[in-house]
Write a structure and sequence with these properties.
By secondary structure, the chain is mostly beta strands. The chain has 4 helices and 16 strands. A hairpin with a 4-residue loop joins strand 7 and strand 8. It is globular, with a radius of gyration of 17 Å.
Length: 234
């Protein structure tokens, strides 16, 4: 087995990502396709009710593929900020939308873009003009609500608080400040989770540099919905 950066499965297909190619496998592990039209695309996500999957590059674009047709569908260039696009992304629960946390104006300015999966055209963008609210990870939980993990910048431009929030039609809602400890843990955990807990991703994980034991971590879950609920105001 190749030393993938990212490796995920939805039960029918598996996708392995290296810095130079994307590999598609069937449920038996047979290689179905090898795509070489995206560089530095190390992480992937499946749509929940379609055969498509997306691979995000650190080079400010993502590529969309059809697993059934073993074909490249579209490549989307979403920013001119290159080399730092390692934040979260996911599909909506109904597969109609694709959410991408992306650096828009600078390597330190994060926004959330929403794309219609019919054509992968951007239909909304949030936080792009807010240099104090920095979303980092996004996920759709069991309850169907989209949750966001991020941090807030203080007056000196550095992190003041972590936060967990919901994403609504007009942007972030019900923002709840969280402890630095909870932010750091969930940030590092969601990074590994998006990579599929591969050995290669663990080598570069923030957990490793903080001497956190990652043994068996892939068998645990830490949904952002539970983090948000933890800080519910009584």
């Amino acid at each position: 087995m190749k030393k993938f950066w990212g490796y995920i499965s939805n039960g029918r297909f598996s996708v392995g990502c290296t810095e130079r190619a994307v590999y598609l496998y069937d449920s038996a592990g047979k290689e179905l396709a090898r795509f070489k039209d995206i560089k530095n695309g190390c992480r992937a996500a499946f749509s929940p009710n379609k055969d498509i999957f997306a691979v995000k590059s650190t080079g400010a674009y993502f590529a969309v593929y059809s697993a059934e047709k073993t074909a490249h569908v579209k490549t989307v260039k979403f920013s001119n900020v290159d080399g730092s696009q390692d934040d979260g992304f996911c599909f909506s629960a109904d597969g109609k939308y694709f959410y991408n946390v992306e650096r828009q104006n600078s390597p330190t300015n994060s926004a959330i873009s929403v794309y219609d999966t019919k054509n992968f055209e951007r239909i909304a963008i949030f936080c792009d003009k807010d240099d104090r609210t920095e979303p980092k990870h996004i996920e759709v939980c069991i309850d169907g609500v989209t949750y966001v993990l991020g941090f807030l910048r203080g007056d000196k431009g550095v992190m003041s608080d972590g936060f967990a929030a919901k994403l609504g039609e007009k942007g972030l809602e019900d923002i709840r400040k969280i402890s630095r400890e909870d932010y750091d843990f969930h940030f590092n955990f969601k990074q590994l989770e998006k990579y599929g807990f591969t050995e290669k991703s663990k080598e570069w994980s923030g957990f490793r540099y903080n001497n956190v034991d990652m043994t068996g971590m892939e068998n645990t879950v830490h949904p952002l919905s539970e983090l948000w609920e933890k800080y519910k105001t009584v």
